[in-house]
Write a structure and sequence with these properties.
Helices cover 57% and strands 9% of the residues. By secondary structure, the protein is mostly helical. It has a two-stranded antiparallel sheet.
Amino acid sequence: MTSPPTPTPTRIATGEIVMSGEQHRAMLKDYSSHGGTELTGAEIALKYDMPVEHFMAYKRVHGFTHNTVPLTNEQLLGDSEKHIDELLAARKHNAAQAKYTSVSVRLLRKMPSSGVT
């Protein structure tokens, strides 16, 4: 039986953040707009019980952006076909949602104003 991997510390200006790989992946998914929940930095900090400044430093070190695909290299190497299918489905959903929003905004702009202020 193998023991679980030891979390790797992330060095930031104020010290180190030690987080399990599972928690790192969950945080990445929560921050990502690709099938994740796209939480803000403040929402992530609250959810993971850390100061906002620590999350902002952590995301800079690890290159998190809202456009980051929420998969680690290990996940892609392990079961890439499954993850690629999930990513494609999420991208199709996001593209459809963006198109719907764009069309809705254009239609609202074309509507005559009611004169109410």
